[in-house]
Amino acid sequence: MVSLGIEGLALEQWRRLLRVALGEEPADLVLRHARVVNVASGEIEEADVAIVYGRIAGVGDYPAGEREIDLAGAYLAPSFIDGHVHVESSLLWIDQFARAVVPHGTGAVVTDPHEIANVVGLPGIRALAEASAAFPLDVFFTIPSCVPASPYESAGAVMDAATIREGLALPNAVALGEMMNFPGVLAGDTEIYEKLSLPARRRDGHAPGLRGHRLNAYIASGMGSDHESTRLEEAREKLRRGLRIMIREGSTEHNLLELLPLVTDATYPQCCFASDDRDCATLLHDGHVDAIVRKAIAAGLDPIRAIRLATLNTAEYWGLDGYGLVAPGYWANLVVFERLDDIRPSLVLFRGDVVAEDGKARFTVERAIPAWLLDTVHIAPVEPAQLRIPAATRMVAVEAIPGQIVTRAIEVEPSVRDGEVQADPDRDLLKLVVVERHRATGQIGVGLVRGFGLKRGAIGSSIAHDAHNIVVVGVDDADILRTIETIAAMRGGLAAVVAGEVRAQLALPVAGILSPEPLEVVAAQYEAVEQVARELGSTVPAPFALLSFMALSVIPEARVTDRGLVILR
Questions:
Q1: Distance in angstroms (rounded) separating the CA atoms of residues 223 and 511
Q2: Average pLDDT of 524-533?
């Protein structure tokens, strides 16, 4: 636990901080009659909190302040920190992401911006970093280590070791981003070695399903954390081998209930929470880290411990001095709520200023989006013949698993007509098509997928982790083609098509993955395309979110990318 100390304070400011802490001078702000959630000691303290220069000067008896807020016995905790998130998965530009999460008590996020980096590289990360300086949310960056994610997909940019070194020099860079290319690590790849050899305080891990000797080899290469565990024993083994376990609960990835038994009196310091990917509708209606904390408490985790996993544990792992504790010398990034068993922020403070109240942001930010980010979707003309699959008696298909981003490679007997494999909605075997969209190369991968349940039409997206090519799942080739064309015409986005008619769409022209529109507008459009997908027969809770992972070539077992079927075991 490390506070800020006097970093950034002039001599007279430090002396005033001392006088306020000693009770000799009024604070800038006093939060009176608080029930302070002390995540260091695991107890609740009844106290006042004195704040000066955006920092906590003291916790105790502080009756005098130039401004006062009487909390009347409400709980006061450090604001929440998301330990690993891709802010682009919200579909929002960074200012609207802040509007979405700050009212839910989020004061800081550690983001791996490899989504925008896969499209435009380091300039995209710089654009996010510059925009994020303008609003009351601390955004820390891990610099993407795998752009492209693997050799099996075509991204819009490449981040080699020299580029990553440049990114690590950014002011808010805290680590090397998640090392997704675990096969490259285990093979001793030279390029991976160059990246892992860079001076970085932390190296974020990504080890889905790794166990035994393979896990040992991966961890021995320098990784310190993992957010990809989907089974309790997998997470337990990773914890035993020294990894910080980030328990993930996103829009598509629901791992909390499975992994929560890992958190015990002995292990809780080695665990924290992460959302990884939360879309705009989930953020608007369900929440952010606060929703993870609520779910953990409802499942039986001690509330103070749950808050610690969302605050101090995360801050300590990432080396975020001055974050995660209500204590002298820490930033006054705080959240107020009425019930410990059902945490719903009523007041959110950032460096001593009230920035959200009763679920509404009390700040406005309008940042211009660089024009060069609005023209990144370039595809070659797609011909119907490119969507055809030659007849085969047996094929390997991708089986999507609702609630997870892992898949299965399954052997199927496809339906065949006129020498071509056909989608078979009665058996939930649909076509999965991925179109390269960065350089108009004309590369197209086509395969079969099970798990979406569509009975007619097609749905598609230019959000396809991690290379973000155009990915479409559908019953009918003509509808698949129309979906591709619609997404390209929008310069990126989501679309649902049936019988040649575009039934719903959401334009995402910012790098082909983000909207420049307000949170509420984007969430409504997102819900509309999801609803049409369900009307077309989709049986999964979040069909577009699930679709976005069908081309991710670093998650076992099977994917389709613009280069074809990829099997990972």
A1: 30
A2: 97
How is residue 185 written in tokens?
A: 């690590």
**Does residue 321 sit in helix, strand or coil?**
coil
Pick the more confident residue, 89 or 554.
89
Residue extents of the structural domains in the chain: 79-321, 372-568
Q: Is 287 helix (H, G, I), strand (E, B) or coil?
A: coil
CB count in 10 Å sphere of residue 416: 15
CA 65 to chain centre: 39
Tokens 């490449």, residue?
A: 158
pLDDT at 561: 97
Q: Tell me the backbone φ, ψ of residue 545, rounded to 5 degrees.
A: -65, -45
Report, as an integer, the average pLDDT of 63-69: 93
Are 306 and 295 contacting, i.e. CB atoms less than 8 angstroms apart? Answer: no
Radius of gyration of the chain (CA): 24
Which stretch of DSSP H or E encloses residue 477? helix 477-489
Residue owning tokens 């996993």: 309
Hey, which CATH number is domain 79-321, 3.40.630.30, 3.40.50.300, 3.20.20.140, 3.40.50.620?
Answer: 3.20.20.140
pLDDT at 305: 98
Q: Which two tokens stand for residue 121?
A: 């590289």
Rounded-to-integer distance, Cα 87 and Cα 97, Å:
7
Taking the complete model, does pTM exceed 0.85, yes or no?
yes
Q: CA 15 to CA 21: how far, in whole Å?
A: 10
How many C-beta neighbours within 10 Å does residue 445 have? Answer: 23
